[in-house]
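Hello,

Following up on my earlier ticket. Below are the two sequence lines again, exactly as submitted.
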Amino acid sequence: MTEVEETLKRIQSHKGVIGTMVVNAEGIPIRTTLDNSTTVQYAGLLHQLTIKAKSTIRDIDPQNDLTFLRIRSKKHEIMVAPDKEYLLIVIQNPCE
Amino acid sequence: MAPKSPQSRRKKPTPGKKKRKPVLPANEEEEPVNMESMGHPEIYPLVLTTKTQEIFNCRIDEDFTDEMPYKIIKKEDIFEDLRNRAAVSDFHPVKKVIQEYPGNELLLVYDKDFKYGLNFYIIGTEEGKENYLNASEVQEDQEEYKEFIPEEIYTYIPPVSKPWVSLGSEKEIEEESVKKSTKQVTYMISRKRSEFGAPITFRDQNASSVKDAYIECTAYPDKNFTLKQLEKNVGMQAVPQVQDTSTQTKWTYPKNASTQYYAREFSEEEKERLGQSKSLTDFLNNVSTSVEIALQQNEITNLFIDDWKSLAEEEGTFGDKTNTHLKEYQSFTDLHSQMEKMITCVSWHPTIYGLIVVSVAVRLSFEERVHFSGRLLLQPSLILFWSFSDPIHPQLMLESPDDIFCFKFCPSDPNIIAGGCINGQIVLWDITTYADRIESTKADGGGNKKTTLKPMFLLEPDGNKEATYIRHCAVSSIESGHRSVITDIHWLADTFEINRFGSVFENRNEICCQLVTCSADCTICFWDIRPLKTLTPTLPTEKKKEESIEIPFDVPSTFLHLDLSWKPLTRIKLSKGETNLDHCPTKISLSEEQLLYKISDKLLDQTKVTEVNLYHNLEAGLANLLKPIDDFCTKFFVGTEEGEVIYTDWKMEKDPDTGRMMAKKPKSLYSVHDGPVHTVQRSPFYNDIILTVGGWNVAIWKEGVMSGPLLQTCCAAKRYTAGHWSLTRPGVFYIGREDGYIDVWDLLEKTHEPAQSQNICITMITYIEPWTFSAKQQFIAIADYYGTLHILEIPWTLSHPSTNEVSSVNYYFEREVKHLEYVEQRRSIREQEKKEMELEMEKRKHKTHHKSKEQMEAELKMDYESYLELEKITLIGLGLAKASETSHMEMM
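Thanks for your patience. The regenerated structure is below:
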C-alpha cells in the first residue's frame, strides 16, 4: 500500500475516530472514509473556517501562522491540520 | 307756446313699413320737409286728421278712389282752416308752401301706399301738379296702351346729355380735399461740383467744447407727468409655495436569486493521481504526528469534563430524595354498578392530561356467569373515562355488548378505541363527537399540575354531569371472528400494513388501519378496519333483510361498513404440531409498535372541522399497488396460557405438501413460567428486550438470543399478576402481586429480588400502567381485582434515570448475553467432556474383563489381608483390642 494509504489507515484506526479526509487547498476532497455528501459538506465548511482562522492569526501577528485547529462539540471533536496545499480533517468521538 | 311734438302727429296708426324720419321740431320758422331727397322736391307729405278730412271732404275711403286719389283744394279754404285752427291745423307745417303757392288750387294726393311716408301729400308747385295730373293721365293712357299692344319693339334711344345739376356734391368734395394752408418754404443749397466725391476726412470734436455744437433734449422731471400715487389697490393671495420635482432613482428591490450548484469534486483518476503525488505524502508525514498526538490526548482523558458536576446527579431534585415510595394520589371506583366488578384493562388517554380509561368486567367465574347470565344481560358492560377532577362520576361511559377484557386507543386518532370482548368480538368506538366534552376536563386537571399533592376534597368536581352511555360503533362478526375471549389487542403501526398472506406492504394511508388480536381459541387474527371490496356483489335485497337492525342516531357511521360483518383479514393458528392441543395465546408483542401517539395541534383542530377525518373516509387498500417492504421483521413474541413464550412468525409460507399458504411453525418455544403469561412487553428503551411475567417468576428476553432468557428470577412467594416496564428508567420495572403488593425491580441494584415492595391494596393487582405527564410528574395506575383504580405518583428516584443508566443497563444486558453464550459454551464443553468421560469409562470396563480369574482371586486375597492389617491397627489405635487379642485375630 502506498504511504498515503498507510498513514490514513493508521489515523483511522485510532480509538473513537469516526472519519478522516484529505482535502485540497480549494476544498475539494481527495481522500475520505465517509460518504460523499458528508465529505463534501465537511470539506466545504471546514475549508472556509480554516481560512478564516488562518487569517485571524495572521492579522493579530503577521509572523504567526495556524498550525492546528481543534473544534470540540458536544458529540465529537473535529481536528483540522492545515498546510499550504492540503487539509487533513479527522473527526473523533472522545467520550467513551 | 310749447313746441308741438311731432309725435302727436305720428300717433296715427301707420300700417306697413315705417321709415324713421328725422324728428321735426315744429317750429313755425322751420322749413317743411320735402321729398327732395327722394327726387321730388315739390311733394310735401302731410297727415290729415279725420276732422280735417271732413272739413275738406277728403275722407279716405269716401272721397278718394283708386283712380282719383287726389283732390284739388282751394287755397283760401286752407287759409281759413289755418286761421280757425291755428296750430292744430294739419296744414300748419306746409303753411309756408301754401303761402308761396302761385296758383289758387292745391293738389292734395292721398298716399295710400305711404310712398312718401304719410297718408297725404301736397304738391307744392304748379309744374308738379301738372306733372302729376298728366302722369296719371299718361298712366292711364299707358295702361290702355298696354292692353292694345302687348309687345312693343324696344328702340334704342341713345342717352342725351343733360345739363349738370348740382346736387351739392361739389361742396362735399371741396370740403374733403386737402389744401395747403401755408405757403411752402423752398431752400436752395449749392455746392461746388469738384467737392463731390472727394475723400472725406472726419474729425473728432468734443461736443461740449464748442458752443452750440449739439442740441440736446435733456430729460427733466416734468411735474405734469409725475404722479404721486396716493392710493393703491393691492390684491394679495396667500399661496403656499409648492414645487413639483421629480427624480429618477435606481430602485433596488429584493429579487429572489438562486443558483443551483453541486460541489466540485475530483474524478477518480485525479484523486488517484493526487494520492500518489509526493506533495501529499510529504504533507501527511508532516501532519500526521500532530494529529496523532491530538487523538491520543483525547483517548487518554476528556479534557472538558467538569469533575464536580459529574460527581453529583443531574439537576436538583424535586421533593424529598429519601422518599422512594409511591405516593397515593387518587383512586377511582365505580359506585353505581350493582354487581361486583374487576378492572381488566387500564389505559391513559394519549393526549389529554388527567384522563384515564378503564375497562371493567364482572367478577364471576365461568359457571357463575352462566348462572347469572340473565342478570348480566341487563347490565351494560362499560369502559369508563375517569378524570382527575371528578373521582365520583366518570366523564364518559362506553357501552359494549359484553365485558371487555382488553382495549387500546388508536395511535393515529385518540378518538377511536378498539376493545376485545369476552365473547370473542371486537368492538369499535368513535368518540369524536364527545371529544370536546372530555377535553374540557383538561382545564380542571391543569390546575393540578403545580401542586402535585392536593387533597381530594379541594378538587372541585365538574358539576353534575349526566354521564351518558355511548354506544359502540361497530362489532365484528360473531361467526367468523374469535370464539373465545380476546386476551390481547394491538393496533398495527401506521407505517406498514399486511395482506391476507401476511406479507408486509407500506401503508399509504397515514393512519393505523389494522389490528391484531389474540384470543383463547388459540388463534391470532389480523383485522382491517377498511371496507373490503367484495368480489361478488351481494344482492341488495338479501342484505336488507339481514341487516334490519336499526342503528340509533347518535352513533357515528365511521365503521358502519364493519358492523356485524367484520371478518378478520387473516388468521394464524398456534398449533402444537401433531397434537390437537394448541397454544393459547394470552399476550403478544410485535416488533414494531407505534409508540408515539399523534398529538393534534390546536391549529390542526381548526382545520379538521373542514377536512374530512381520515377515519371517516376509509377505503380498502389495494395491496397490489402498494410497495412491499422487504426486511421487515414479521416475528413476534407470544405468551401462552401454559406459561410458554413463543417466538413465531406471522408471514405465511407455502406448505410443500398441500400447496396452500400455511402459518409457519414457531421459531422457538420456551417454557419458563409456571402460570399463564400475562405480560409480554418490550422495553421502551431497547426494542429487542422483552419482559415476560407469568406464574411466579419474571423473565427478560433478548430478541435474537435463542438460548434462553437473559434473566429469569427465582420463584417468588406470591404469584405475579401484573407487570410493566418503567417508562423513564431503563432498568426498572413494576410487578404486581396477588396480595396487593407492588414490587419495584431495579436491574442495576439487585437482580435476585425486588428493590422495594409496597402495599397498595388488599386484593390482587390486575393491571399496572405508568404514564409520564411531564418531567416532574409521573403517575402509575394500578388496577385491582375489586374494581378500584389507584393512581399513585412515582417519586423522583424512581422516575429519573441516573446518569448513563441507559448505557449501564445496556451493558448489563450485554453481559447477560455473554453470560448466556458462555453458559452455552460451557454446556457444549461439558457435554463433550461427559462424552469423553463415558468413553473412558467404557474403555476401562473393557480392560477389566481381560483379567483371568486366578489373578482376580489373588488380588482379592491380597486386598483382604491388607484390610485385616488395617483393622488391627485401627483397633489398637482405638484401644479396643489388646495386643494378645490381635494375635488371636491374626491366627484366624
